[in-house]
Structures are given as structure tokens and as C-alpha cells.
Amino acid sequence: MEVQEAGDILEESVADLELPMETNNLPEEMSLAEEAMEVVINNVNCVFNMGTSGDIMLLFMAHSWHKETCLASAQALQDSEVISKLLLVKTAEFACVDRPHVERGISESRILYTERRNTEISERRLGEPPVENGLIPYLGCALQFGANPLEFLRARQKKYGHIFTCKIAGKYVHFLTDPFSYHSVIRQGKHFDWKKFHFSTSVKAFGHGSMDPNDGNTTENLHETFVKTLQGDSLSNLIEAMMENLQHAMLQSNALKVNSQDWFTDGLYAFCYRVMFEAGYLTLFGKELNSPKEKNFARQEAQRALILNALENFKEFDKIFPALVAGLPIHVFKNAYSARENLAKGLLHENLRKRDNVSDLISLRMFLNDTLSTFDDMGKAKTHLALLWASQANTLPATFWSLFYLIRSPEAMKAATEEVHNVLEKACHKISLNSTFISLNREQLDNMPILGSIIKEAMRLSSASLNIRVAREDFTLHLDNNDAYNIRKDDIVALYPQLMHLDPEIYNDPFMFKYDRYLNSNGTEKTTFYCNGRKLKYYYMPFGSGITKCPGRLFAVHEIKQFLTLLLSYFEMELVDKNVSCPSLDQSRAGLGILQPANDIEFKYKFKFVI
Ligand code: HEM
After folding, report:
1. Tell me, what is one Gene Ontology molecular-function annotation carried by this entry (predicted)?
2. Are 186 and 169 in contact (CB under 8 A)?
């Protein structure tokens, strides 16, 4: 057994990351361990993770979580009740955390480490990818990876080539970086289990029972449910409902009606978030019965207030989502916990039954929850909450990036405005606030390649998803260059498509927004991309890949197209500061999908047409 003081380990890791050690404010009598812990609270975040095998780990992620997450983690350290609970499930095999003195907060904290025994691969065996174990026992490379995944992986790619293994928080992850070899992971279904990881992540984050039929709570085939209700005819219904709900959310606001000739200033992200959340929520979960035709203004406003309340709860919950995925128990975050419970209460079947125009997805899931599962009422509601999150968490920032890049680029604005104008003209729509809502069907929206290219390009620049598969058994992975590597059962194989999205060999000037990057010279969608002169099968993967590819991807692109179309139709828009620099990507969600902007941008808008 290897035992190390927390202080030594943290000092090492902090030095490695070159973080400023804000020791000035520390009480003098604090020991080295206390100092190190204090640095963690000020500069680095820590997360307790209870893995499936009952291990506890203290994971320090440099600058990668929100301040709130960091503070809540620090609180957890000081909260003897939480620590005791964690200790109850510890196994000596991995790590344990001494109970700190409550009165002194985190003093005398000490971390004991033992190395993983069963699947230890710190020694590279013949035929396995090169391994990087990192400097810190158990954590391995977690700190450096968490601080900047793209830079971390690029540096290893340069050093090791197409595949390498990193120890991250006790797990061995094989990163495959060659896009020509992606198919060997995406297509090798029989060697990989994708369900275990997805199902357990959902349980951890949303608090419902396992949706894995093997665990006996339900016999629903979720994949089938998603395909049936998010694609085909159901997709057309979603698009139709979204078109109406978007206009409802955009145009019915009190202030806008009164001052329709004025410029309004708002945060661009705040605006996208509000409009898309409201419209998306109503589209999936329907409206209160009879309300669409309800003339009573006060009643409509009451409905809106409820949705805005759900939006605030969603924000609070979503903020700590990365920490939940990492394994921190939700009880540590009191506000996020009550936000999650409130959201779920709104999605209880008894409440959903009072709503009209509930989507096929939610109607079918309600039926299957009631007939095929043993979940209790709150458990069922939390399965719907998982879908609320899936439908919004990536769409909201993707909408922001699409609109931000569009407004900032005069050529994109011109081309997109013309495309929208042409489509509306063909559909014989005249824009005025007195006329009925604009309605464009799926086919008409599909016929808008410029908006399509803008959205794709915005997502290429902001997506950072991690595609994960777990090896079912020991097997040999064959790469495109005919190299073969042995993979051990339970190891993780990961693709990080951001490496490909920002590869200058594939995309010229990869950090630049080019609105027509995904257009051929004749204006049709471009689907041919090359790397070193060879045509790529995989060149764009913000929606994941293979069996786990996002089932809502078609709806997602359509709803963002609808949002942009309506904005361009109804409003003049400008950035308040035309030379504003592009917000940086908030890396705290790297691995989870579309990254959020680190800060909001002010924009102004006014109606194009006076009533
Ligand atoms: C820009 C918007 C979106 C992006 C970038 C996105 C991306 C993703 C990604 C990367 C995954 C995981 C794939 C994997 O693990 O390999 C996923 C899963 C999923 N997405 Fe999306 N998504 C978006 C919008 C939506 C929407 C609008 C819906 C539904 C209305 C949706 C429903 C789902 C569901 C249900 C899953 C889980 C699928 C499963 O586990 O079988 N997504 N999405």
C-alpha cells in the first residue's frame, strides 16, 4: 500500500499546473496539508467520485469547474455528514479520506492511496498502446486532462501517435486520435458495451432507477423509443409545434408589444436560452390544457412565469451537471438538488396529463413507464427530466454560437437573410405582426443549406464531446494503418472529435468561422472532406457516433434553423459592440457536448415591421 499526505500530492500537482498558490490569506498555524487543501478551494476544484465498485476518489480538476461547484466541493469536505456517508461505501482497495474535524473545517485531512490491483496496467504489456500513468497515484493524468483536454491530447498525439493510454482517475482510457481508424471503434459493436456507461451516468445525474432492462426495473427499449418518436412523422410534428412555440416565445412578450418600434438590448446567450428553453419545453411537454386559445392575458402570463421558473431551476441544475457525471452526490449541492426535484415535480405524470399537445416522445414514454416499468411516480418523472436535459443542454449553447457567428459575419448575414427571404417568398409569407404565424415545414427547412452550413460550422467550433465505449472482453483493435493493439476487458476506448474538428489538415484555418465551409460551389451541402489527400468517412461528429449517436440530432438542427429564420424575418439585430471578441469556450463541460460561452455578449434588436 502506498500512503501519501494530501499536502505532498497537491503541492506536486499544483506546481505541475503552475497555478498561483494563494497562500497569503491562510492562517499561519495551518499545516502543509491544510495549505494544500486551501489552495484546492481557491484555485482548483475537487470532486468526490463513487465509482461502481465503491471506490472513493478525490479528483482535483484545475480551473475546470464553475466556482459554485468548487465551493460546494469545499463545503462537502467540511461537511462531516457527507464525509461519513462516503466513508461508509469506501473500499480500502482504492482510497479513503480521513474524517476532518468539523470545527476546523478541513484541517487534518489526509488521503491514503492504494493502487488499483486487478487491472493495473502501469506496466505496458506487449501489444498494448503506450501508457501514461501521470505523476499522481490514482488520479493519473486527470489534472492535466481536466485543465485543457484539447492541448493535453494534442501533445500526446504528437508524442505517441494514433493511440495511447492515459490513466485518468483510476481508469485506463485508450484515446484513439486517427479519424481514419474511428470506424474500428464505431463499427466494432460486439467488443464494446456502450450501455453500461450511458445508463449509469443517467442514474447518477437524474436520480431515477436504472433504465437498463438487465437491471429489472423496466423492459422498455429506449433506443427504439427514441428512434420512433424523434424521427420520421414524429419529427414533422415536433417541427410544426416548435415553429408555433418559438413565435409564441419570441413575440408575445409584454414589453415588446408595447414598445415595438424601440431597440431592445439583451444578452445574446440569455435571449437564446430564454426563447429556446420556453419553446423547447412546450414542444416536448405540451401546454396547459386550453391555454393556446386562451384570450386571458393574465393566464398566459402565469403560464410563462411557470416556464421561466422551470428555466431557473434548469440553469441551477445544469450548472453542476459535470460534477454529477464525475460522481459527486447531488446532496452536496443543496440548491441544485431542490432545483432538480422541482423540475421533476412539474413532470409527474399527473401534471403531464393536464397538458395538451404533449409530444409523441413524452406520450409514448409515459405509456411505457406506466406499463413496462416498476418506477414510482417521482422515478418516472425523473426519466422525463433526463429527456428535458438531453433536449436542451446542448441545443441552448449551439443556438447561441450559431446566432453569434451569424451576427458577427456580414457575409453570413447577407447570405442567410437572402436565403430566408427566398424561402418565405416561395411559401408566400408576408411578415407582419398582425398576420398569422410563419409556418415552414420540414421540406422547406431542409431546403436552406446556408443556414445549415452556418449551424454546422458554429457547432464544429464549439463542440467537445467524448465518445466512450467500454471493452466487454480482451480483444485486439485493428487500426487503419494495420497496426493492432491489445485492449483489456473493462478498459475504456475514447474518441475526442474536437481533435478532428480543429485539425488544420482537415479544416483550413480551423479556428476561423467560415459560414460556407459546408457548402459546395453550387450551393449544395458539402460532404466531402480530406485529410492528407485521403477522403474521410468521419469528419464531423458533434452528435456522437454509431449506436450512441444522438437520436434528436435532426430535430436539433431544425429547431436552430427555425429560430434563426424567425429572428431574421422579424428583427433587425446588431451586436452592441461590433468589434467584440469571441467569448472563450467554458471548458468545464468538455466531454459533455457543446461548450457554453465563458461570458455573455450584448446585442440589440427591434422589429423590422411596425404594427
Ligand atoms: C445541438 C444539439 C444537440 C447535440 C450537440 C447533441 C449531442 C448529443 C450527444 C453527443 C449525445 C451522446 C452520444 C454518445 O454518447 O455517443 C446525445 C445523446 C442524446 N441526445 Fe442529443 N444532442 C443535441 C440535441 C438533442 C435534442 C434536441 C434531443 C431530443 C429532443 C436529444 C436527445 C438525445 C437523447 C435522448 C440522447 C441519448 C441517446 C441514448 O442514450 O440512446 N438531443 N446527444
Report:
1. cholesterol 7-alpha-monooxygenase activity
2. no
